[in-house]
Design a protein that fits this description.
Blueprint: H1 2-5, H2 14-28, H3 31-40, H4 46-68, E1 74-76, H5 80-89, H6 96-115, H7 118-124, H8 128-150, E2 153-155, E3 162-164, H9 170-187, H10 193-207, H11 242-266, H12 280-296, E4 301-303, H13 307-312, H14 318-338, H15 343-357, H16 369-384, H17 388-405, H18 414-429
Antiparallel strand pairs: 1-4, 2-3
Helix pairs in contact: 2-14, 3-4, 3-5, 4-12, 4-14, 6-11, 6-12, 7-18, 8-11, 8-15, 8-16, 8-17, 9-10, 9-15, 10-15, 11-17, 11-18, 16-17, 17-18
Amino acid sequence: MKTFFGFEQNKTSYRQETLAGLTTFLTMAYIIVVNPAILEAAGIPRDAQVTATILAAIIGCLMMAFWARRPFAVAPYMGENAFIAFVVVKTMGYSWQVALGAVFWAGIAFLLLTLLRVRSWLAESIPISLKAAFAVGIGLFLTFIGLNEVGLVILGVAGAPVKLGNIAQTPVLLAVGGFLLTVVLMVRRVPAALLYGILATTAISVLLGITRLPSSLVSLPPSLSPIFLKLDIVGTLQPGMFPVVLVIFMMAFLDTIGTLIGLSMRAELLDAKGNLPEIERPMLADAVATTMAPLLGTTTTGAYVESAAGIEAGGRTGFTALVVAALFGLSLFLAPLFTMVPAHAAGIALIMIGALMVQPVTRLDFNDLTELIPAFLTVSLMIFTYNIGVGMTAGLLSYPLIKLCTGRMREVSGGMWVLAGLSLLFFVVMPK
């Protein structure tokens, strides 16, 4: 097992990888509850969706563990699920069966482009400035989510769109204390500091009566039969569905590239040229998972940005993803236990990760505006539109255009022009 996952060359161990997997899982276990809640708005039975969500995550994580051998966890994407529920079904009026059919075709396109190595070619054509921006943007995006989760930042009622939360509330104070504890542990180089911060905050929250222990720790998984293989593949072939399939494909395609590159940069897995060796392997893992997801009855899956928590805890190989898969397997029967971690505890890790993921900003050339501005737009729009895909498309589109307008077109690779075209198409066909 150590040889298969390359423990020696990655300077890791069973303990380090296991703690990393547990840390990643605790920061993303919310998907077990949140994904079914969102897709219920589309009419997909919530109980069956719990099982589908978990199974999709298990398949994706196992693929990432054994095929890609990377420490990236896979699960149904946030954002894409909301697009399916509230735009495709609620606004455009398509059935959830047809919507899942669109996810299936997007997955097939994913699979073909990956097997033809087109996706890896496009990923390697992205300049180092944008790759650094992806990492920084994802980190600050996670920070914003974390600050909102713990209650330090909330939506503003009037004037500013966001404002300071009520810092006198006990959960907020607990989160602040848990964050300081995590910082101290990390400064002292305590292994799994993020995990200890989450667990300590959860334990105190339970003792204070803020978080309730579940009435039962064990439960049988709900039946998958109401949604298994219920997608409408033929119904998706109608002309009006083409923009939907394209948007789903583009959202997942860009999210995956940005997440893989951003996480790999933080994990120091990129080579001297700033590329992830054998990137087609993790891409194939998420392509297979995305194709399988609608068959199970759920939406697009891919590498999760919360994997940064496990990477920060020391995860460097596919064994981390294997641990996450095993924990998702346990959650089929222990869902009440795994989902009891409160938001103000899990949010601590997300804030801390953001602080650690801004380091690649040092790789930006602040004296070259043709490199700086696209990176700036990427980071800014990721955060301020609350959409990683929008930030990435802005960067991918503005980079070659600025180079062209300043007479430096030779610095733009052919793959970047393809990505710019796809980014423009994304903005054109995306349903308003």
